[in-house]
Amino acid sequence: MAGKPSLSVVVPTYNCAPLMERHLASMAAWTDLADEIIVVDSRSTDGTLDLIRSRLRHPNLRIIERDRGLYQSWNEGIAATTGDWVYISTAGDTIERDHLLHLLDLGERAAADVVISPPRFVDEAGAACEDQNWPPGKIIAGSGLKEPFILTAEAGFILAFVHCPSAILGSSASNLYRGAHLRARPFPVDFKGAGDSVWILRHAAQSRLCFTPQVGSSFCVHPKEEAIRGERLAELVEKILAEKQQTLARTDLEGPLLQVLADKNRLHGEVQAVHQERRRLWHLRPRTGAALWSWISLSFSYFRKRNQLNKLRARALEKLIPDSCYRTIATGARGRAARSP
User: Fold this and answer.
1) What DSSP string describes 23-45?
2) What is the DSSP code (8-state) at residue 65?
3) Preceding omega of 12 cis (within 30 degrees of 0)
4) Distance (Å, whole) CA 313 – CA 322
5) I need a surface site. Which of 80, 122, 194, 211 has the fewest CB within 10 A?
6) Helix/strand/coil (H, E, C) string of 310-324?
7) Rounded distance between C-alpha atoms, residue 222 and residue 210, angstroms
8) Distance (Å) of CA 263 to CA 251, 310, 311
9) DSSP β-ladder status, 94-95 and 176-178
10) In whole angstroms, how far apart are CA 232 and each of 36, 39, 192, 239, 301?
């Protein structure tokens, strides 16, 4: 079809053979939509690459082998793409054909730089597991809208910081990136598993973000290599804020945003500290009555502080983001949908 946008698919892999059977079976339903598929393998030793070579069929398949590095692999694959749109198909995370078409259609109609959707959550066997309460779902719920919408740059900028250390991108395997936009903005490689969080912190104000409530992908829940929390979280936010000082000044948001982030980081650190002490007491042997009583007391403190943190996030969103920051795709109307009190 004339004018059809081109699609590049990047498949980063490293010793993920147990996940690739299901992953490749899912890909087979939509690979014809891709103009090129680029596999970036970090020298797997468990047969991952052999499985891919035997099962993945595409006329424009390219395989790159390189040393380990999570976002380094992503970036090398992205840099090799030529498509109007880039989809990152991470091992174990699947997407349905109709949903990929939905994201492509939305991206074109909304002139978006990133199209974001909430995923389902599954375990490594592909069985459904509990919702992880990620930012895309919260943002969609907070908009009150039942249809796709665009965030203004100001709203995206604020939300990226309010939801830190979680990325408002959610899972990249549930999203679509405009090729030129992504190729010009590689993922940072010096934050380990938080590269996507830092990417959106840095680039939200220059990115046109489109959210859709439609679900058509799954994310395989697995432990991260390293969590970002406590002092490291505060250092991360401080570093990015220093980079964005001029942007903040232009939006007159510096004072309110810094206060929200200070309160949020303080509570987040307290929650983590209490949780770690609870775990220490629970595993203490022999378990004394005094230790058990302390564990019960800390548990009440933990849930109270966690509730305060959740309320702070909600208040921050209501306070800093006006309704006009949400713009629906179909009509161009501004504002949140009416919600019951």
Assistant:
1) HHHHHTTTGGG-SEEEEEE---S
2) E
3) no
4) 15
5) 80
6) HHHHHHHHHHHCCHH
7) 27
8) 21, 12, 11
9) unpaired
10) 38, 32, 12, 10, 23
Strand-pair category, 149-151 with 209-211? antiparallel
**Which CATH number fits the domain 1-92, given the four candidates 2.30.290.10, 3.90.550.10, 1.10.340.30, 3.40.630.30?**
3.90.550.10
| Nearest-angstrom CA–CA distance, 76 and 42 | 11
For 220, the token pair is 């395989």
pLDDT of residue 243: 63
Predicted confidence at residue 297, as pLDDT, reads 82
Question: Residue 285: what pLDDT?
Answer: 79
Closest to 37 (Cα-Cα) out of 63, 75, 72: 63
What is the mean pLDDT of each successive set of 10 residues along the chain, which is 341 residues long?
84 94 94 98 95 95 94 97 98 96 96 97 89 92 91 83 82 96 94 83 91 96 59 62 58 57 70 82 78 79 76 60 74 49 31
Would you state the pLDDT for residue 335? 57
Say if residue 236 is exposed, middle or buried (CB neighbours under 10 Å; 0-12, 13-18, 19+).
Answer: buried
Instruction: Tell me the three state secondary structure of residue 87.
Output: strand
Three-state DSSP state, 138: helix
Place of tokens 């390293």: 226
pTM (whole model) above 0.90: no
Buried b (16+ CB within 10 A) or exposed e, 216-228: bbbbbeeeeeeeb
Say how far apart CA 198 and CA 20 lie, in whole Å. 28
pLDDT of residue 66: 94
Site of tokens 């793409």: 81
Q: Give the C-alpha separation, 186 to 183, whole Å.
A: 6
Query: Do 115 and 106 meet the contact criterion of CB atoms below 8 Å apart?
Result: yes
Amino acid identity of 54? S
The residues, ordered by sequence, that sit 6+ positions from 193 with a Cβ below 8 Å of its Cβ are: 70, 224, 225, 226, 227, 228
Q: Is 54 exposed, middle or buried (0-12, 13-18, 19+ CB in 10 A)?
A: exposed
Locus of tokens 């698919």: 9
